[in-house]
Amino acid sequence: MGASYYQFCPVAKTMELLDERWTLLVVRELVGGDRHFNDLRRGLPRMSPTLLSKRLQHLVAAGIAERRKSGVEVRYRLTPAGQELAPIVAALGEWGIRWIGHLGDQDLDPKILLWDMHRRVDHDALPSGRTVIQFEFPAVAASLRNWWLVLTPTEADVCDADPGFDVAVHVTADLRSMVEVWLGDLDWSDALRSGAVTIQGPPDLRRDVPAWFKLISFAAVPRLERPARPVGLPAAPLTPEELSA
Question: Which residues make beta-bridge pairs with 146?
Fold first, then answer.
């Protein structure tokens, strides 16, 4: 639990539970349902396993999440109390995309982007059988440059190493532009027309790629006129605890 505000106000008491760094992002990852520890890590790649474990223990102790074990398999899920936080998390995201338009270069992470995209695949729109998409971000570090999505009508996997299957389409993109597409700030058509995103492959597959994904839920949020200076402060550097693996 975070430090006490020593106020009886329900907002203050709630924030004592939720305002420690990363806590609400762990809740965000749990909003979709059951999660394995490693799946949570992939959605929060800059959070150390030790800190993630600590935050999960905190949420379980507070009655916000529960830990379920079946044999050697452990899953975490929100309790009814935790599920009531889902619209609050959604409201925070809607406010952020409406008012905080600026993204710094450090905010652009292909690992998070591809993990999010694999969770938003429209499986009904996919061709039958296995479809592999390779994403290449030429301007990022070599270790983060290439990613693969292995898609079927029922499953989606994201790989940071070549899975060994034939690639159906190859997407080359400027990372910032691809993030803007995903957030709904840039249309697929505009990104393709400008050359910020290119798709190589058979014509029918190239045409259909945008329809294979349901954009992030916040993409449809109407944008208001943002202030000239972005709301908020620059992100604080990670602490030694958060950087430790």
Answer: 136
Identity of the amino acid at 127: P
Q: Which structure tokens are listed for 181?
A: 């597409």
Closest CA to 118 of 230, 58, 39: 39
Of 32-41, 58-67, 138-147, the least confident: 32-41
Percent over 70 (pLDDT), the chain: 91
Which residues does 137 contact at the CB level (< 8 Å), separation at least 6? 110, 144, 145, 146, 172, 173, 174, 175, 178
**Is the model's pLDDT at 168 over the cut of 50?**
yes
Residue 101: its pLDDT value, please? Answer: 73
Task: Give the CA angle between residues 45, 49, 54 to the nearest 5°.
Answer: 120
Q: How confident is the model at residue 191 (pLDDT cuts 50, 70, 90)?
A: very high
Residues 6+ apart with CB under 8 A from 132: 148, 149, 150, 151, 163, 165, 166, 167, 168
What is this structure's pTM?
A: 0.85
Q: What would the 3-class secondary structure string for the chain be?
A: CCCCCCCCCHHHHHHHHHCCCCHHHHHHHHCCCCEEHHHHHHHCCCCCHHHHHHHHHHHHHCCCEEEEEECCEEEEEECHHHHCCHHHHHHHHHHHHHHCCCCCHHHCCHHHHHHHHHHCECHHHCCCCCEEEEEECCCCCHHHCEEEEEECCCCEEEECCCCCCCCCEEEEECHHHHHHHHHCCCCHHHHHHHCCEEEECCHHHHHHHHHHECCCHHHHCCCCCCCCCCCCCCCCCCCHHHHCC
